[in-house]
Design goal:
mainly alpha
């Protein structure tokens, strides 16, 4: 019986030692695992921050490009409006010049007819 009792004590001691060893490993390993998790999280946060800053810079650049394009578009629109007004003014002046030319041609025809009539009258006398 005595052997049995010593064997049980021995088994209990081994079991206790193993349990303590496993607990001590957990206590020692968990901080490293935790530190690795924190390091991974910091790395991921850093990468995400870099991507965010690149996206922000890209958005700022594209926004500036859009503002410049809008200003260019507004300037071209203004030039087009000015050109349309100039073209309309030129059409009106051209129409007025055509009317003036037709009136001048009619006056010349009337004057020529009057002159021809006077020449015809002087020839008959």
């Amino acid at each position: 019986m005595r052997i049995n009792s010593n064997f049980r004590k021995y088994n209990f001691t081994i079991l206790f030692t193993k349990t303590c060893f496993i607990l001590s490993l957990n206590v020692l390993v968990l901080p490293f695992v935790y530190a690795e998790n924190i390091a991974d999280l910091q790395k991921n946060a850093s990468i995400a921050y870099d991507k965010m800053m690149q996206a922000k810079q890209s958005a700022d650049t594209l926004n500036k490009d859009a503002v410049f394009a809008e200003k260019t578009f507004a300037a071209i629109k203004q030039k087009l409006a000015t050109a349309e007004q100039e073209a309309e003014t030129a059409r009106k002046k051209s129409e007025q010049a055509r009317i003036s030319m037709e009136q001048a041609i009619n006056q010349w025809k009337q004057a020529s007819d009057a002159l021809a009539n006077e020449w015809g009258k002087t020839d008959r006398k």
